Automatic annotation (TrEMBL):
Residues 466-565 form the Fibronectin type-III domain. The lineage of its organism: Bacteria, Bacillati, Actinomycetota, Actinomycetes, Propionibacteriales. This is Fibronectin type-III domain-containing protein. Gene3D superfamilies: 2.60.120.200, Immunoglobulins. InterPro entries: ConA-like_dom_sf, FN3_dom, FN3_sf, Ig-like_fold, Quinoprotein_ADH-like_sf.
């Protein structure tokens, strides 16, 4: 854990020794580094830090958390708790399904009660309700879980609901109450509740109960009921719900109870998953909308949690089926009209309103349609397992308009029951701390089971998470005595804006700041380092700093020989105004560096790419290329833009096989749905360039010579007013003079692979097995003279 104490001077001071070890250089003082690297000073984007506070853990799942005063009550399916940092099975303290903690310090409190239920034989199949646990005797299981904890209307008691039948040996069928002042079990008792209790909502005089209940006090009830808060006596309140009730809430005026869950009808009226009923009579109130779709038997959305404020009910949902809605809703509780809809994909199971923000626990993986959101993160089919990820916690600003995601990205693993991660949230205004319970076993990649909490970002005593280690910079010496350095912004889970220090040796030579959000394309920064000694070797690293002065680990070093003369090829390419230029001189990491920061860099796949192989350019000592294996190896653009209609794409390549060298594709994570503007080597070993022009078949032009001879070739393909032209090794080899219409879609440039199905002489292996170098893309057509000049300069001419 990195904290605010120590700040950047200490953090970077500790880094200077290893920095000096890898390349000669002078050392700036800690004070100088601190002054430069934090200029300008970034600020946190949200109320809470993404670095969790030290928190007790459980040996099972937490389903309920509730803050009352300076106490947080925790319920679930567990038998023991253990201190922060303790490994499973060590330093454990007995707490059966419920515990209490000091909301400010996190200390375990004496509150301790035993929730129990009968044991049943495990079926011969070995399958039983996964939310239950093994019984005390071998071959048995028991369902004694605490699912819900809610403070009474006057906050003098807490009501607890679940599967349990006794508390401390006293009969309390699925509902119990405890004094907040003493922690003692009260005499409150509801007679004979049959069925699991998942939801509780107290008013001044009634406790509303929801779940899978079928009877209370010997009277038939249809998933919901209400009892008196003083003695637990059943009332006449009896709406009829035809499915599982998971969440309930009461409006600020106490007139309506909001019921949420997996059902289709309330009091006979078709309403999927959520609706309001009268708190007095149980009759349906005005509810014009039916925002969720599906039926209990098929693809459907259902409600998992509810939160209310003065005039809005916030709804968390789960979706069963591909791309079934499982985001969040804001609904007017007086009439059921939807105020806004958050369409993030990834089931939401916890929701809590704090100030002007809504905090959620989910496994969001695609929020591309939400302001401040991100594209698909869980389906990187070309990446290794573990690269894909979910945003288990999110925060969004809510109000009268559509929500906007904030830059707050702590996360957990899926956990041990349903892979759902967080299951409940509660905010303690006394401590100004957000608590989260769930089935997770890690938080931000570190071991932490069942429970975590996040403190206020503005508190200097609260730990701040360090920015992620930046990728290695790209360094190219394109003229005598100077080096052009570019680097990509990194991530910080609770600061969108970071400061960056570029170090040559141990000396800070440049500072920048940049803002990036979630998984959107990251900005690229640049610096032109001049006055260097020709022929010397210099090395560069990047350090990122957050608004609290906490520094990242330094990036991997990039070293380069300072040129003694001009790099004529790259100077000419840059002079011809490329929109994108990847020289493929990257020495480490997965970022394909760019010499045109505005065009953005690329991202290599995790496998199939070998960096640092000899490049195509002659007379350039440090020129390297990347070798692709023809199976996984690719580089894909990070910036997603509209496919260009007028353009030139230029690349050097060599290989003995076939496949797609470069093209445009709609996906940056999987096989593209739309792809064209291809340069590929066909089954005859010839170079093909083509586009879709509105007809069913792609329009292609093709070289006469073979290019599968394992020798370097220079290719340029252009399209625009001058028609479609293919150049090979400096000469025009195919084309026509017709300017054609082009297919319109958003995507990025893809090197080494992507969709080729249905193209002429389509190779059996769509990915290119070979070496590529010096990719440049222009938003204009290069002239024949310019193409020839580039080719000749690349050969040292």
């Amino acid at each position: 854990m990195r904290t605010r104490s120590g700040l950047l001077g200490a953090a970077l001071g500790a880094l200077l020794v290893p920095l000096l070890a890898w390349v000669p250089g002078t050392t700036a003082t800690g004070a100088a580094l601190r002054a430069r690297a934090t200029d300008p000073t970034p600020t946190s984007d949200t109320r809470f830090t993404a670095q969790p506070l030290p928190t007790y853990q459980t040996n099972g799942v937490v389903y309920a958390v509730e803050a009352v005063g300076n106490v947080v009550y925790v319920g679930g399916n567990f038998t023991k708790v253990r201190p922060p940092g303790a490994a499973p099975g060590t330093r454990e303290v007995a707490r059966r399904n419920m515990a209490a903690f000091n909301a400010t310090t996190g200390a375990l409190l004496p509150f301790s009660h035993a929730f129990r239920a009968p044991s049943y034989p495990i079926p011969s199949s070995g399958v039983y309700d996964k939310e239950c646990s093994r019984g005390a005797r071998a071959g048995t299981y028991t369902c004694d879980t605490v699912y819900e904890i809610r403070a009474s209307h006057d906050r003098s008691r807490i009501f607890v609901g679940g599967d349990f039948q006794t508390v401390d040996g006293r009969v309390r069928g699925n509902v119990a109450a405890f004094r907040v002042s003493s922690g003692a079990l009260t005499s409150f008792r509801v007679d004979r509740v049959y069925g699991r209790v998942r939801a509780l909502v107290p008013s001044a005089s009634r406790l509303y109960i929801g779940g899978q209940i079928s009877q209370v006090s010997g009277r038939r009830r249809y998933k919901v009921a209400a009892v008196r808060t003083d003695n637990g006596a059943l009332t006449s309140w009896a709406p009829r719900v035809n499915g599982y009730v998971i969440a309930m809430a009461i409006t600020a005026d106490q007139k309506r109870v909001i019921i949420g869950g997996d059902f289709d009808r309330v009091n006979g009226q078709l309403r999927r998953g959520v609706r309001a009923v009268s708190a007095a009579t149980g009759a349906n109130t005005a509810w014009s909308g039916n925002p969720l779709r599906g039926t209990n038997g098929g693809r459907r959305s259902y409600v998992t949690d509810l939160a209310v404020d003065r005039d809005t009910v916030y709804v968390a949902t789960e979706g069963l089926g591909e791309h079934v809605f499982d985001g969040r809703l804001a609904i007017n509780p007086t009439n059921g009209v939807v105020r806004w809809r958050n369409t993030c994909l990834g089931a939401t199971w916890a929701i809590e309103r704090v100030g002007s923000s809504l905090y959620t626990g989910s496994h969001a993986h695609d929020c591309h349609a939400v302001p401040g959101g991100f594209r698909e993160t869980a389906r990187h089919l070309l990446d290794k397992p573990g690269d894909e990820h979910y945003h288990r916690f999110q925060a969004e600003v809510v109000g009268s308009g559509a929500p906007r995601l904030l830059h707050w990205m702590p996360t957990t693993d899926g956990g041990i029951v349903g892979s759902l991660g967080p299951r409940d949230l509660t905010y303690s205004p006394t401590a100004d701390v957000l608590w989260a319970g769930g089935e997770f076993t890690t938080v931000n990649g570190d071991p932490q089971q069942g429970l975590t909490r996040f403190g206020p970002a503005r508190d200097p005593g609260v730990p701040s998470i360090a920015p992620e280690q930046p990728s290695a910079p790209l360094a190219v010496s394109d003229a005598s005595g100077r080096v052009r350095v570019t680097w990509e912004a990194t991530d910080d889970w609770d600061n969108a804006t970071l400061g960056y220090s570029l170090l040559r040796g141990g000396t800070v030579v440049a500072t920048r700041s940049a803002t990036s959000s979630h998984d959107t394309p990251r900005p690229t920064m640049s610096f032109l380092d001049t006055g260097l000694t020709p022929g010397s070797r210099v090395g560069y690293r990047v350090v990122a700093t957050d608004g609290a002065g906490v520094a990242s680990a330094p990036s991997t070093a990039t070293t380069v020989t300072v040129a003694s003369g001009p790099d004529a090829y790259r100077r000419r390419v840059l002079a011809d105004r490329p929109q994108l230029y990847w020289p493929f001189d990257d020495q480490a990491d997965r970022v394909a560096g760019t010499l045109v920061p505005a065009g953005g860099g690329g991202r290599y796949t995790s496998g199939g790419v070998t960096r640092g192989v000899p490049g195509a350019l002659q007379g350039v000592p440090d020129d390297t290329a990347v070798q692709l294996d023809g199976v996984l190896g690719m580089a894909r653009g990070r910036s997603r833009t509209a496919a260009p209609s007028t353009f030139s794409v230029e690349v050097w390549f060599k290989g003995s096989g076939t496949g797609k060298i470069v093209g445009y594709g709609s996906s940056q994570t999987t096989l593209s749905s739309y792809a064209d503007r291809h340069l590929y080597v066909d089954t005859d070993g010839r170079l093909v360039f083509g586009m879709y022009d509105g007809s069913r078949a792609p329009h292609v032009v093709r070289s006469g010579a073979r290019v599968d001879d394992d020798r370097w070739h220079h290719a340029v393909a252009t399209h625009g007013d001058a028609g479609t032209v293919l150049y090979l090794d400096g000469r025009r080899v195919a084309g026509d003079s017709t300017k054609r219409s082009t297919s319109a879609y958003a995507g990025s440039w893809q090197v080494g692979g992507d969709r080729l199905a249905g193209w002429p002489k389509e190779p059996a292996q769509r990915n290119y097995a070979g070496t590529v170098d010096e990719l440049a893309v222009y938003l204009h057509q290069l002239s024949p003279e310019t193409v020839a000049a580039h080719h000749d300069l690349g050969l040292g001419g």
